[in-house]
């Protein structure tokens, strides 16, 4: 009987150095964007109970935090503001002395090389918790665009390197691009939350940002998790309107969408490894059920392998430490 013919794929796996030689996907510190929650007041470092290792911090703690981030080799942060006061129009979002604007100036004063991305939305700042103007229980699209543009301009004036609008209003990229250009910020790029699903994975974030809607939900503007082709329509609109980056959020349950968007558009793709994805592993690791380092690294590798160029993740500091080991 003749010998069976088959391929010996294991030849390339027989040692760690050989596996490293043929490795296809990598995570670098430069790929990581670390989210920060900044709050009004002084001497505040509140742990977010549902997100172990994540804190709400006041500006007087910000330098220590940024110093640590820089020392770890992380080059980019995204700022989320938690204001002291809220109103129906979210005025603190676009106030010159809003918390994100003040935090941006602070970071740029102490670490001008740090890439500061400003989250551009209204939900943390409105008393109803929605991402736009509300009238008779309806979230109004077009009137909201003016406020988003004002917010983006205010953030750019404060020194933000990138504007990241997360509201999912129709036309938000076009309105913000026009506003930035007319204000003289034509060189400030837009990192659009182009594909943002109405996901159950956002709960811990809403604890941290105090952004839960006070009535209803966000399904009239965030996407249905059942839909795939809609993601490409959303991303195409944002690219046509002037987006420079495309975010897919969440990441782990939407790896197919990341790949679709990567295949379709010639732009940097950003995976948002959201709070629920982060907290599940933290909880399991705290109970000794999983190896946190191995699981986090495998999870982030899946996002890079699916096509993301950058990853927004609350695990960025842990990952940077592991990469240095």
UniProtKB/TrEMBL annotation:
It catalyses: 2 5-aminolevulinate = porphobilinogen + 2 H2O + H(+). The keyword Transmembrane helix does not apply. It comes from the Bacteria. It holds the Pfam family ALAD. Its EC number is 4.2.1.24. CDD domains: ALAD_PBGS. The keyword Nucleotide-binding does not apply. InterPro entries: ALAD, ALAD_AS, Aldolase_TIM. GO terms for molecular function: porphobilinogen synthase activity. Keywords: Heme biosynthesis, Lyase, Porphyrin biosynthesis. Pathway: Porphyrin-containing compound metabolism; protoporphyrin-IX biosynthesis; coproporphyrinogen-III from 5-aminolevulinate: step 1/4. Catalyzes an early step in the biosynthesis of tetrapyrroles. Binds two molecules of 5-aminolevulinate per subunit, each at a distinct site, and catalyzes their condensation to form porphobilinogen. Homooctamer. Belongs to the ALAD family. This is Delta-aminolevulinic acid dehydratase.
């Amino acid at each position: 009987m003749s010998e069976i013919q088959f391929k010996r794929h294991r030849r390339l796996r027989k040692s760690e150095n050989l596996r490293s030689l043929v490795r296809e996907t990598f995570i670098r510190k430069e790929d990581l964007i670390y989210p920060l929650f900044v709050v009004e007041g002084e001497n505040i470092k509140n742990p977010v109970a549902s997100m172990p290792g994540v804190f709400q911090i006041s500006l007087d703690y910000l330098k220590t935090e940024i110093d640590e981030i820089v020392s770890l080799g992380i080059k980019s942060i995204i700022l989320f503001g938690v204001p002291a006061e809220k109103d129906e129009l979210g005025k603190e979002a676009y106030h010159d002395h809003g918390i994100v604007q003040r935090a941006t100036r602070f970071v740029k004063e102490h670490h001008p090389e740090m890439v500061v991305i400003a989250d551009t939305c209204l939900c943390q700042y409105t008393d109803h918790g929605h991402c736009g103007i509300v009238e008779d229980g309806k979230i109004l699209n077009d009137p909201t665009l003016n406020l988003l543009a004002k917010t983006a301009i205010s953030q750019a004036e404060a020194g933000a390197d990138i504007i990241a609008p997360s509201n999912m209003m129709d036309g938000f990229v076009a309105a913000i691009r026009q506003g930035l250009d007319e204000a003289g910020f034509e060189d400030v790029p837009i990192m659009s939350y182009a594909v943002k699903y109405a996901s159950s994975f956002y709960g811990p974030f809403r604890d941290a940002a105090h952004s839960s809607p006070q009535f209803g939900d966000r399904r009239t503007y965030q996407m249905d998790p059942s839909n795939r082709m809609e993601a490409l329509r959303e991303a195409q609109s944002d690219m046509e309107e002037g987006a420079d980056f495309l975010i897919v959020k969440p990441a782990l349950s939407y790896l197919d969408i990341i790949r679709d968007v990567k295949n379709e558009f010639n732009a940097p793709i950003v995976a948002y490894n959201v709070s629920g994805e982060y907290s599940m592993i933290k909880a399991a690791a705290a109970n000794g059920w999983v190896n946190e380092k191995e699981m986090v690294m495998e999870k982030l590798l899946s996002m890079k392998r699916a096509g993301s160029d950058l990853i927004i993740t609350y695990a960025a500091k842990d990952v940077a430490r592991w990469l240095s080991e």
